[in-house]
DoxX family protein (Mucilaginibacter rubeus), 387 residues
Amino acid sequence: MKNTSSNSAVIWIPRLLVGLLFIFSGAIKANDPLGFSYKLVEYFEVFHITFLNGLALTMAIVLCALEMLLGFALLIGARAVKVAWGLLLLIIFFGFLTFYSAFFKVVQTCGCFGDAIPLTPWQSFSKDMVLLALVLVLFVKRKEIKPLFSAKVGDKWLICAAVVSVGFGVYTYNFSPVIDFLPYKIGANLPDEMKIPPGAPLDEFELTYHLKNKKTGATKVMNDKEYLKSNIWKDASWEVVGDPENRLVKKGYEPKIRDLAIQDEQRNDYTKELLSSPFYSLFIVAYDLSETDKDAINRLNALAINLTDNYNIRTVLLTSNSAADAKAFAKEHKLISEIFYADGVPLKSMVRSNPGVLLIKNGTVINKWHYHSVPKYEDIVKEYLQK
């Protein structure tokens, strides 16, 4: 006689774990599809398929929706055989990517859970292997997965889930992430996020020496501690071959913001000045002026003119373009904002929009907006400047 409760547990435990984890993973990435698309571009560069860069955002939204849809379908048991195949192929694909990243040390954060839960490549690969084991159980028993609804009702649920999954990614792309996991989130004090606290552990490195005996030809490999303790450096018959290898053995404290440097055209650093102002400043972030929304720039320029004329608000345009391109762009659009320059990576993290807007005071992000949701001049005055 079969133990039905035991068989049910063998299916339901991995069914719940895999289904919920796929939904969670897809939703976390769909919360920030633009950020996930940046990660896809990194993989495209590694595999020399950069012709797909233009499709990265679409692929990001679809891939996130697929994860959520497969997880949901598994939970309700709809189209179980096809879903089991989809889960198996997807986890094998993810496992290959994370192994490749870890083994060849290329993409050092896989983006599996977006910026919410950053994982190292080996952690990501381990997670994928655990998931693969659970998916294999479901794949072997795919015909025993019982649906919660009839096939017709299940298909209707899948259609609804597909619309919601895709719609969520489209919404967050057009109106910023629902939850901001980046260091430039509302309420963050940027100078504090850039500091290393006193007493915080620093990176620890180890030097490795390759030694050769001039008389016998014997060789040795020693780390810096062994090298000093053995006093071999005093023995003239031993010589160091090549340069010592410097290896990180223990990671120290790393500030959340470590790559932000705001400069003017002459490369003078203005980071501290701009972030320490006790007054309101409006930062218009357009990391790539060639791809920025021109209508949005014109609207933001009108906003900057009003804020500057009536409240003497300092408005700044931050970009990663060259000074020549930025000047030409500013002339074309009659921009009044001061132009400063920074690397594209931190600018992409500041706000998931091109252009995007940050309202900053005393180095603290008071608010930030996608260009689709920037409030009107009157609303900014009422909400912030008249208080």
Q: What stands out?
A: Strands lie at 204-213, 219-223, 238-240, 245-250, 281-285, 314-319, 338-341, 356-361, 364-370. The longest strand covers residues 204-213. The mean pLDDT is 93. Residues 212 and 233 are 11 Å apart (CA to CA).
